[in-house]
Design a protein that fits this description.
- With 258 residues, the protein is an alpha/beta fold.
- It has two domains: 4-64, no CATH class; 69-257, 3-Layer(aba) Sandwich (Rossmann fold).
- It is 52% helix and 15% strand.
- The protein has helices at residues 4-7, 38-46, 50-68, 72-79, 87-90, 97-104, 107-110, 125-138, 148-161, 164-173, 189-202, 219-223, 226-237, 250-257; strands spanning 12-14, 17-18, 21-22, 25-27, 114-119, 143-147, 176-180, 207-212, 240-245.
- β7 (176-180), α11 (189-202) and β8 form a beta-alpha-beta unit.
- α9 packs across α10 and α11 runs parallel beside α13 (226-237).
- The chain is globular, with a radius of gyration of 20 Å.
- It starts with a helix and ends with a helix.
């Protein structure tokens, strides 16, 4: 007999009205045999009082965000308020506020575009990347944060234990992949191929956010291998929104203020 979890839907985005606004909710496989269709779930959900629906929505969003992070940085930034609607984000130095508002709509996710964020250390690259990832979760998309060095390590371990293809498949399914601190250290041969495999699987079907201290114009030279560099840069640089951050390190400002 097939279980309810297997016969239920994997992911659907529904838009019930909460407090007069359309709020996207990510519906994963639901527990219980009675929830075998979206319509059945919506009927029961719409019958709940507003407070209960709001509580469920907040709990579900928190769960989606928890799954989005690979490590502590994303989780911490999400719950410390990394949100494109916050004034702190709009006040970051040399941020194109019109572009930030455009990206906050998540139209770039729907159109499978990339976001490339460059600037010196401490200027807010990771904060903005996590904010955009958070916003994608709020819009009903799935996001995943990876620091580049840890992703390379995970790929190496996956090759060793025979789960490499499974890892690539998981990364290919994520709507928004945040790749933080790209081009921080020289790439090894296996790492170049890992990056190409990941980007190839996502090309034209998913979106990627990349942060780097190195300007995108220098990424081709950074990869070094001419053929792989062409392939990687073709998938990253085309059809991409670019944010360049300048100014002093906000970490230093924080220390001075404390």
């Amino acid at each position: 007999m097939t279980s309810a979890r297997n016969t239920s839907f994997h992911r659907s985005t529904v838009y019930p009205t909460l407090l007069g606004a359309a709020v996207p909710l990510v519906v994963e496989p639901l527990i219980g045999a009675r929830y075998l269709s979206v319509s059945t779930w919506l009927q029961d959900f719409s019958a709940l009082p507003d407070d209960d629906r709001r509580a469920w929505q907040q709990e579900r969003l928190a769960e989606v965000l928890r799954h989005a992070r690979d490590s502590v940085p994303f989780y911490r930034r999400v719950f410390m308020g990394a949100d494109p609607s916050r004034t702190a984000l709009a006040d970051l130095p040399v941020v194109d506020k019109a572009l930030i508002r455009q990206l906050a709509t998540c139209g770039w996710v729907e159109e499978h575009q990339q976001v490339l964020i460059s600037g010196a250390t401490g200027v807010g690259k990771t904060f903005i990347a996590c904010a955009l990832g958070t916003q994608a979760c709020r819009k009903g998309f799935r996001a995943r944060y990876w620091r580049a060095s840890r992703l390379y390590h995970a790929c190496a371990l996956a090759r060793a234990d025979g789960t490499y293809i499974r890892l690539l498949a998981q990364l290919a399914r994520v709507d928004v992949l945040v790749l933080d601190d790209w081009a921080l250290a020289p790439l090894q041969e296996a790492e170049r191929r890992d990056v190409l495999e990941i980007l190839e699987d996502r090309s034209g079907t998913r979106s990627t956010i990349v942060t780097s201290q190195l300007p995108p114009g220098q990424w081709h030279d950074y990869v070094e291998h001419p053929t792989l560099a062409d392939a990687i840069c073709d998938r990253l640089l085309h059809n991409a929104h670019r944010l360049v951050l300048k100014g002093p390190s906000r970490r230093k400002e924080g220390k001075l203020d404390s």
